[in-house]
Design brief:
There is one protein chain. The protein contains 3 helices and 7 strands. Helices cover 23% and strands 35% of the residues. A hairpin with a 4-residue loop joins strand 2 and strand 3. The two termini are 23 Å apart. It has 2 domains: 62 residues, 2,3-Dihydroxybiphenyl 1,2-Dioxygenase, domain 1, CATH 3.10.180.10; 42 residues, no CATH class. Strands 2-3-4-1-5 form a 5-stranded mixed sheet. Strands 6-7 form a two-stranded antiparallel sheet. The chain is an alpha+beta fold.
């Protein structure tokens, strides 16, 4: 029986995008689907499609939360897990009742727009 929860993707924060791309290319045996600069976020992003999910590499290009996180974690590591759920409102309500801190949660009685993230303290340091 399915729980209705699936891994959407994984984000690996890295210090050096070129090194990380070569490592993933070697291990996965595929080229990244894209590599581009996200100037607004201060990141260089590379994505490997691993159907039905993906692995994204994020390398900071300026000071910010990802850059600080990479420094605090000796050059990088698992930064974010993306989950797909069948019923977002019910899942958010269940997490609220369990007192899980949610980022992007508009609050009870308000419509959820976009994505909601589980605070890293509830996923052993990874953003979910």
């Amino acid at each position: 029986m399915s729980s209705g929860v699936r891994i959407g993707g994984v984000v690996h924060a890295v210090a050096d995008m070129d090194v990380a791309i070569e490592q993933y290319r070697t291990v996965l045996g595929i080229d990244p689907e894209f590599v581009h600069d996200n100037e607004q976020a201060g990141l260089k992003v590379g994505m490997f499609r691993t159907e039905p999910t993906f692995v994204e590499l994020w390398a900071p290009t300026r000071e910010g939360p990802v850059q600080r996180w990479v420094e605090e974690h000796n050059g990088g590591g698992l930064y974010l897990l993306s989950f797909h759920v069948d019923d977002v409102p019910a899942t958010v309500e269940r997490l609220r009742k369990a007192e899980v801190r949610l980022l992007g949660d508009p609050g009870p009685g308000k419509e959820i727009e976009g994505m909601v993230y589980v605070h890293p303290k509830h996923l052993s340091g990874a953003l979910g």
